[in-house]
């Protein structure tokens, strides 16, 4: 029998309600934190049109094969302090293009990709400028204005030596 003079113990002073509620509360807090973090740090997709890229892959491969036929190669030097880019192009071209486009492609964040234009200094020597020298791994593509061929490669920056990009690698 119960003693009529004892007060019932409040629910929040009991062990079992807290034992059941704490995991649920922690789960909700962690879920809200992860949702907030994922919204604030969204970096986009690297390529949001996979189908169109899949169809264009043959055109890209043709550019690579054309560069291999022409025995294209490039030496790229990047000054990490000034941002100067010096490129020496080799290959069996009928005439050297007056400009080249050098694309820096980030492997994980499309928003960080950028391009620079390299202008012809002498016959097969080109010069350009990057605003900020890249850090870590970057893919590089070199193409002429007409887009007939493409040289591609990758490098871990900062790099002290000359980078060699050869067709067919």
What does this structure look like?
The chain is of the alpha+beta class and 169 residues long. It folds into two domains: 12-38; 72-166, Immunoglobulin-like. Helices cover 27% and strands 31% of the residues. It is built from two helices and eight strands; from the N terminus they run ααββββββββ. It has helices at residues 15-40, 50-69, and strands at residues 73-78, 84-90, 99-105, 114-122, 125-129, 136-143, 151-157, 163-166. Strands 7-6-3-4-5-2-1-8 form an eight-stranded antiparallel beta sheet. The radius of gyration is 29 Å and the shape is elongated. It starts with 14 loop residues before the first helix and ends with a strand. The mean pLDDT is 87.
In short:
The protein is an alpha+beta fold. The protein has helices spanning 15-40, 50-69, and strands at 73-78, 84-90, 99-105, 114-122, 125-129, 136-143, 151-157, 163-166.
